[in-house]
Structures are given as C-alpha cells and as structure tokens.
Queue: 3 jobs
Job 1
Amino acid sequence: MIKDKFKEIRKFCETHSDPDTVKKYSRYFKEGYDGYGIKKEDFESVRDQWIDDWSDEMTLDDYLDLGDLLMQKGKLEEKSFAISFIKSERENYTESTFDRIGIWFEMGISDWATTDVLCMLVLSSFIIDEVISFEKLKSWTLSDDEWQRRAVPVTLNELVKGGLDPTIAFPLLDPIMLDQSEYVQKGIGTLLRGLWKKHPKIVEGYLLKWKDQCGRLIVRYATEKMNKEDRKRFRKKK
C-alpha cells in the first residue's frame, strides 16, 4: 500500500512539473532547487484530496513509513506532501513520533524550505501540545546536521506569537550561538528579532552578551527592525 501511494504521488508530481515555476523559485535556493515546480493551487488541491480519501486507511505510522520514502527519494514537493500528511495526524503525536521525524534529517532534508515547513506545520505542535519538552528540542542543537540545528530556532519562532518567554528560548540558543552555518545563524537572528518586538530590553541584553562572539548574520537579522543608532550598539568590537 505504501509503495503504491508513493508511485501515485510521484506520477502526479511528474505530470504537473512546470519548468517556469522551477526557474522562478530557483533564485531562492543558493544550494540548488530540487523541485518539480508544481503550482501552489495544484499542490494544495491534491494534498487535501489525498488526506480526505486516505483517512480511513492510513494511520500515523503508515504516513511515517510513506514519509521515509518521500524524504529518501523525493524532491521538494514530495517532501512537502510527507510533512502535510503528518500534520493531519497531529492528535496522535507521541514523543516517539518526534524522534522518528528527527531521522528525516539524515534521510533527505537538505534545504531551508523543507526544514522551515516542517517546523511550522509539525514540530511546533509537539511543543504547543506539550508532547515533548523544550529540553527534548534542545537535544537537536548537538546534531551534526545543520538543518536539524536550524530547526531549533525556527520551531521556537513559531511559538513567539503564542507568547514565548525569551528566558525559555535563550538556553536552547546558547549551544548554537557560535554555529558557523549561515542557515542556523539566520534562524537564530529571525527568532531574536521576533522576540525583540515584545521583549526589547531582555533580548538586547542577551544580544549584547554575544555580539562579539557570534556570527554576524545573527546580529544582522536580530537588529533589522531597530533604528540606525540602536543598531550601532551591536557592532562587534575590533
């Protein structure tokens, strides 16, 4: 059954591939765009149809098995389908589900877009629904995979609108504040910028502590909404 679903998804992707859309999105992927270029409306329509049609036959475990195939062998849209399928099973998440999804980074998550969609649609729910602890997410900061490390600040960023306390976020960021990956740095900076809007003094204090050591992309992204004079305070000492 799983292999048949994979073949159906692959056939849809190949028949709806659009070179113009591939060209359009390629400029956003410095590491290379590995996608079919499926139009958004076509993707969303068939995604919703599959989830509805398969609701009586596919379980969370089935979708995880299908997700393994899609992550290992698929392009960007196929990986996005895998994430959407898992999102539809939110009520059944367990801590072992989180661990299983973590293996996807080894299998085939290799770009910022797949990472961020996974964080937005799936990983943030594990924290919101208290399926896992913040400490569990923190363990990913030790990963050798830059995308898995990026997933920590990007997942936290999804919690900002729900009132994330910066003092909860900071201990999760400490292990990766010296990270050399530009994508991890951008993720941290974006999170700090979002927290700064609600907690400026606390975030500024944290950033001042790290500004002479951390990557400059963190500082650039974190201070983006500050005025010019305020940004000067965060220049690295020579």
Note: The chain has two domains: 1-113, 133-238.
Job 2
Amino acid sequence: MTATVRIGGGLGYWGDDITAPGRLVRGGRIDYLVMDFLAEVTMSVLRKQLKRDPSAGYASDIVPILRDCLGDAVERGITIICNAGGMNPSGCARRVLELAEELGLGDRVRIAAVAGDDLISRIDELRAQGADLRNIETGEPFSLIADRLASANAYIGAEPVVEALRRGANVVICGRVADPSLTLAALRHSFGWKADQWDLLAAGIVAGHLIECGAHVTGGNHQAGWEDVPAMEDVGSPIVEVDSHGRIELGKTPGSGGVVDVTTTIEQLLYEIGDPRAYLTPDVSADWTTLRVRQLDRDLVEIDGATGRAAPTTLKVSASYEDGYSTSALWLYSAPGAVARAERAREVLERRLARLKLDIEEVRWDLIGTGAVHERRSPPAGELIEVVLRFAARSHHRADLQRAVVELSTVFHGPPGKTTLLPGRGRVSGVLSYWPALVPAEFIEPTVELIEAGGSR
C-alpha cells in the first residue's frame, strides 16, 4: 500500500486560473490532480447551454487546461479527477478523448464519465416514489415551481468515482459529484478505505474541503491577513499529502506566492460547512470539532483527528427554476456635488417610469460610493465628486422590462455631469432562482461509462 498520496487542487471554480493545473502537474510531485468546476449557478448556466446545443453543457475550460497538461500528467502517472462534465459528462469525456487523440495520447488515456446526478427527466418518477422535493430552506412545496423547473441535480458521492478508478480510468469526468468527494475517491482507491470507515472517510472529506476552492486556502482569499500575503499575483495551488490513517499535510505549489498557515487553513475549513459537528456529505457526516491543526514548517500545516458518522439517508438536490426577468443599468456622475446630481437623476427616472405604468415587481436604486452595500444613512465625510447610480428591476413580464430599458437609455432632461450608460444599454435576461431539496439516496443510481476510441462501455 502507498505510504502517502499527494493530491493537488488545481481549480476552485469554472473560470479559475487555467494555468494552475499545469503548474501542479509539472512541479507539485502529485499523484492526483483534482479540479472542481461546479457551483449552483454553474449548473443553471450549463443547462441553458445544453438546451441550445446538445453537444455542450460542460465546463469548456477543461479543453485548454488539458491541452496544457494532459501529456505531462500521463508521463508522470498522474490521475485526473474533475467535475467538468456538468450537465453532459459523456459529451465532455468524448471531447477529452478527441483532445487526447489529437495530442497522440489516445492509447495512453482511459477516460470515464460519471453521471446519474441529473434528475430533470426523472422528476415525475421520483415524486411518485415519494420524494416531495420541498424547499429545505423555506419549506415551500415543489408544486410551486414544478412547471418552471430548469435543472435538478443530486450531489452524489465518491463511490462511482472509486469504481471508475478501479476499472483503470486515469481521467475521470464527473457531473455533480460533491466537491470534496472527488478527493475522497482518490484516497479510497489508493488506500482501500471501505465505505463505512467513517473516521477515514471524514479525513478524506476534510482533505477535499481544504483544496476544493483552489487558492482560497493558500492566501488567495485570506480574510485575517490579506495585507501580508506575499506575491499574491503568483498565488500557489493547494496540495494535500494524506497517509492511510487520515493524517493530512497541507502545502502549495513549490516556488509560488501565497501562504499556508494555521489561519488560512482554519478559514477554509470553516467555509460553507454549516454545523461543524455534522458537515453532511453523500459519503459521511464529518465532525470538524475533533480536528487538530498545527504549523509544521513554512507553508506546511498538519491536520488530523477527523471523526465521522454514517452519511445522511438523503442527498441534497440543487435545482433551479425560471423566475421571470431582470435588468440593470449604471450611470457614473463625475462632477462637484455628484451625490446630489445622482439623487436628482433618480427622481427624474422614477417619475419617467411611473408614468408608463409598467408591471415591474421589484425595483432597486443604489448610490454606489455612498455606502450602498452597508446601508449607510449618509455619505462619508467630505464632498464626493464621483458616484455611480445603479438601477435594477425584476418582472415576470419581459416586454415591460424592455420598455423600461428603452426609457432609461434615452438622454433625459436632468442634472449634467453623467457619463453614458455603463457598459451600455441594459439587457433583459431570464432569471433562474435556486431551489434546494432532498431526495432519498436509494433513489439515485450513479453510472460509470468508459469512453474509448471506437466506442464506449
């Protein structure tokens, strides 16, 4: 059995630095490269893309990333696991196979697609089986949005990824596998951890959680000491080295900027976990309160003491639904008395919109620069000579919002000193709202498909 396994967190979100994975592959001495592309809003975007083009629906950044580092990963025996598959894991895997063949690596790359998380075509079946899919935050019944459903994906765990690795895949393309479960799968495969060894699974989830946001844990999102982070423009990516007992050492890309210390580690450990006594995942309920964190050396932190209990019997579902339309516009006022000018402009625009009697359900005006975010009651001391007036609105009537955009885009009689619209005339866009729900885990059946030249199996 391998003494330790080194796993690099190459990506924290779709749109992250596409050169980071290659640096990890070439300089990190890693055994696995894990990349997390997905978030709730990402799945909604990918669903829209898939509806427009059946060959799309995955995170397209995977192609330039692997064009840069796939060959080096193969030469070094590094296995790649990611959830770039989004709404179309099979299509993404086939595109990666095309790339591998283009690079002359077709016979050295074995690609697996992990799916089964997409529930959009199974909603009626699941509800008939007893899944009520009510909103777990508000308690509202699913019937409120059933006819407007845009996407629905269950967060599945490490098991199908472990199976893909067992079947010899060295590139695993997943759909909505839970972020830390990608890392846990690598550890389970390497060490032979069983699906009910709760403390070890909890350690794997801790390791995955540490690296799932990429450079957030290496100083890229350091709340307590951001002023002192060295070479932030060259911030490194995280690397966890884990042994078979679940002890973790956290470091970063050698020779990179950023910092790894107890504070950055704890900040990331606490990020988006909910109850620290029960961080719920598809694989295990992990207890953060038993963790021990200590500095070993410069940019090297030890984490151990993870404990866990059986996973919940339900899986979280990230769903989205069509919720009308929105638009926004910005005007910069740059002149003495900028705040007064912008406030008067708001009055003028409000009256122009009011006379149209449009069906607009929600309107928001902000004076950005006067404390709009933190709701200051008065501008900061001193006269401001620059301020941004922001308008935003929502409606279930697209035509009314479009009419409002036209009205707001005209040159109106009002205070001088404004620029033109920033960045231009407002665009009316469809709104997809979030609907979190639960589904019994037994209803979900993940699949593993090996994608090979000449066919799949």
Note: The chain has eleven helices and 20 strands.
Job 3
Amino acid sequence: MIRIAAYALFAGLLIPASALAHQKSVSYSKWTPVQGGAIAEVKVRWLELTSLPVASEPTEGPFDRAAVRSYLQSHLLLESADGACKAIPSTAIWLPAERGWVRLEWRVRCDDPPQKLRSDLFAGLTNHVHLSTVLGPAPIDVVLSPTAPTARIASGAARERARGLGSYLRLGVEHILSGWDHLAFLVLLIVVARRLREVAVLVTGFTVGHSVTLAAAAFGVVVPHARAVEATIAASILLVALENVGLEQLRGGALLILGAVLLFAAGAVFGGLPAFWGIAVFSACYFALLRTLGGAGRLRWLIACLFGFVHGLGFSGVLLEQELPRAQLVQALFGFNVGVELGQLAVVVCIWPVLQWLRRRELGGAVVDATSFAGALVGTFALIVRVFG
C-alpha cells in the first residue's frame, strides 16, 4: 500500500498540464522607433489566448480579432514621462504567422521619448515571460514577467549596460525551472545514483550535451525541427524511466520495444517525421546493449550526454525566436546557458539530500519505483501527444 500511494503521489506531481509544457509560456514583441512614437510587432500563441475571454466567442477563425487586438494593445505598453503611449487602432495590421501563432502590428503615439516598456500579458499564467527587442542604433533586449513586468529603456551608455547578461541569465533560470520535461529527465537520471560523484558525472554529461547543441542551433549550424525535438525529449524521459526499472531484464521488454518501434513508425507515416525511426532503433539497441553488459546504469553518462544534445535543441527555441543579431548571440548564449546551469544545480542541491535521507530509511527502492512509474506514464503521454498531436 505504501508503494501504491507513492506511485500515485509521484504520478500526480509529474503529470503535465500540457504535453508541450517544455515550451515555456512566452510571447514576443519588436518595437521600431519612428517620428512621434513607435511601431509594435507582437507575436503570441493560440495556446495562451485560450486562457482569455477572447476565445469564447470567435468571429473569424478561432478568436475574436477585435478582442485580441484590444487586449494586446492595452496590456503591452510603451511609456514616456507623461504616461503610456497611445495606440492608434486604425494602424493595426494582422501579419502572416505560422500555425498556432498570431502576429499583430500597430503604431503608438508618444508625446515624449519612450522611457519604459511594460507587459501585463497573460498575468494569470505564472510562468509566462515576454521577450521584447527595441530596435535602433543600439538595440536593447528585455525579458518581462509577472514578477518583473517593467523594464527601463535607457539610452547611450545606460542602454549598453542594460544589454548585459542579467536578463538572459534570469531567462535561463526560469526556463529550466518551468520546463517539466527537462526536470523530469534530470530527476530520473540522478534518482538511481548512489554517490555524489555519479551525480556530478551525469550532470556534467547532460551539461556538455545541451551546451553544444544550444550553441550550434543559436548560431545556425543546425536547424532543429521543433516537433521532432519535442517528441525526442519525451522519448528520453520514457527510456530513462524504463531503464531505471531494469526493462532489459523483463520478459515483456521485447514486446514494449516492438510497441515503441510501431509507434515511431506510425509517426513517420502519418506525421511525416522519419527521424522517429532512429529513436526507435536507438532504444532497441540501447536496451540490448544494457542486457549484454548485465544491468542498467553502465551507460547512464552516455544517455545523459546524447539526450542532452536534444534537450539543448529544445533550449535553443527561446533564443531563436528573438532573432538576435550575431554580435549579441555570444553574450545572450552565455547568459542563458549559465542561467540554465544555475537552475539545474539548484534542483540537484534540493533533491539529492532528500534522496539520501530516504535511502537511509530504506525507502530508496520505493522512490526509484515510484519515479520510474511516473516518468514512464508522463513520457508515454507526452510522446503520443507530440507524435500525433
């Protein structure tokens, strides 16, 4: 009964609100200064709009465009010394956008030079961030969130200082702490570790992996396929969870692997994503190799590094969406990556003492079983949704 209760507890903690929760709730804007004001270009997801009343009575497509326009113009404000700049409704233009997004452009009139940018967009979503770029001779990037809704738009030397690492470091910390799938993968990696040295090796492998591909994607060396990346991240959670319970030693292991192959094959046929074949073959070969070596954990560092490559491609989406100039990418990449590492280390520091305390009370096995059960459940759910959704 204790184990069943533990399974239910961990499953409840790890079941995601959305299979794409890895993709942080985020919106974007660009501001181009013009005579007497600025031109705003804003990009938001449909998913966030469904949390608003604008989704309840659609007139064109899934949303009431007039209501969406009014909401965006009243909750994303450029401010001068005399108050908020006034949006000019007649200048609003709906721009082409990829599926699942909306883009709107409008002009604002300012009596004085703008000094601040404020975002109250989707304030009810505690993990929402707004990434904004103010163009000009010295562009400035700001990160706004419910805890920091206002940013000062400085000029000259003050503007250069504002373009430091702080906002990207904070963005990296927030991204890893709100990315349930990254955290689930990390927890499943370290829950079976017995010594701190093992944890250090696993975290280092994961760090090396995601740092390499984060940089490669940010600089355009590789172009990640968002859907394939998200599905592979879900597969990484499922694979590590199954490894934790010793799948290679179970009689039904071959059947489960065959089921995974069929799932990925269906994804390749119906979703046009042949990369899933590679995931299926890799999973089958990996478990076969573990069986040959005589147990799980022998290649855990390799799994951490290999899937770290994929998680890095997931991290890169935040920076790629900002379309930063090449000169800014280095500092943005460095700050974001350091923020990810700080958030990751904070999680390890919090979890490791608890795991050790539970092991001393002979509950380590129950914790591994419970986290593995929850991880397999969540990984399977996310994988199916990301393949067929």
Note: Residues 2-21+179-388 form one domain.
